[in-house]
Amino acid sequence: MQDLAGKHIVLGLTGGIACYKSAELCRLFVKAGATVQVVMTEAAEQFITPVTMQALSGRTVYTSQWDTREPNNMPHINLSREADAIVLAPCSADFIARLVQGRSDDLLSLMCLARPMDRIPLLIAPAMNREMWAHPATQRNLMQVAADGATVLGVGNGWQACGETGDGRMLEPAQLLEDVTAFFSPKLLAGQKVLVTAGPTFEALDPIRGITNHSSGKMGFAIARAAREAGADVTLVAGPVHLPTPRGVARVDVLSAQDMLEATTRAAQSASIFVATAAVADWRPATQSNQKIKKDGSGRTPVLNFTENPDILLAVAKSERARSKKLFCVGFAAESENLAEHAKAKRERKGIPLLVGNIGPLTFGQDDNALLLVDANGVRELPRAPKLTLARELMTEIAARLPDWRV
Ligand code: C5P
What we know:
By secondary structure, this protein is an alpha/beta fold.
């Protein structure tokens, strides 16, 4: 997806082994539709060559403030004025300290200092050893650089090139792409707390087996990501799925419908928007065996009895918070035919302001989908598109409905 189409990013590399990841980051920015101008410090050139970055960005790399290619000999002015954002990845501890001090004795620091602060954002992806990261000097500098208007994208945790394990790794290129994309997104849901349920539930029969369904969780995860991009504080209650947690989203993993109900009602107490995409099992086995149910060779098969599961959406929609219009509830309906009719009936039955219909067999496990939005005013179609695109459109639709609904 061309999430960064039309954007011009100045990608600054400073001295750190994480420079090897900047090659991939550059490629991801370009693939997402951005033009990328790479600027490297002398120390960065010790880790990766400008040739690599030139080949990936398709532009010659700038490394010196004395670069005579610029007719006015002012690359620090020219490069920063063209940018939609300056992204420093990796940003070393030393470079952060230099930013704090307003040093400007090399092209990259000079360019950061010379950037018009009101219109050219500076995003930094720190990378360093865990002791350097934890040092009060670094933490103090990070607070100062943020106070001076930079956006600090955070660090990863794990094995470090020095052989130690801890905080301070540069975020992975895909994570940085997600963060930079989110940074550019309009903050339509700023101040909102969005709660999303996603995926299937798993209803245990015994310690080995259980009943579940084919829900992939992709739509719900895309919604959680889109809500965070739109500036919301997001909690994602996820059934058993193998999907990475969207950046900046608080995830609660659950198995059964009962667990999901508990986690959801707890989070719903402070949420302002609830989107129920989970394919909750309608029934669970009436009894759960503590031990594996064994076949005894007699040919007799076990008889299974079922109990109906709680309807999580219905329970939340009936809560005081939803009824007093502090919590906007959105349901999903997976149907196989007569989508509009079924979706309208389901919206009434659940007593919610917005219901999103889709045709189940056309969406399960797919990366794209088509949605039908049903509210009190009628029906609106969101044509087939990638799930993330639809999730973003849905966030826009929800944001547009909130003011009228709340009065
Ligand atoms: O009633 P039905 O399962 O068709 O409704 C679908 C909608 O209700 C979805 O939003 C789904 O997440 C939610 N739901 C729920 N708990 C259930 C069943 C459905 O939250 N037990």
